[in-house]
Amino acid sequence: MKEAVHSFILAANQLEHILPLIRQADFHVAISTHHETVKLAINHGTIEISDDLAPGYTINGSNAGIHRLISGEAKLRTLQREGVLKVEAPLRIVLLLEALFVLASSQNFAKIS
Description:
alpha+beta; five-stranded mixed beta sheet; 47% helix; globular
């Protein structure tokens, strides 16, 4: 999972058109499976992995569910509604994260094509 999150971060940080979405954002989210946790820091225009920070929000689920989210195969709210992922964050943060995962995954797809 950590490699997939790292690929997401690389793609997201290269997308200039999403910078306005995260320019004012300052929060931390832990993405967890049963075996692994990765903490993301979204801080004033950058996204990075950070083990130092206590997460303010959490996304928990199976390896397959987390992979579907990070790859952009499914949207965060859809996975949450289906019970695949448990999300503890306000709707505003959920929508922002969903947009980031979808936009970054489309960037990865464009590189492959």
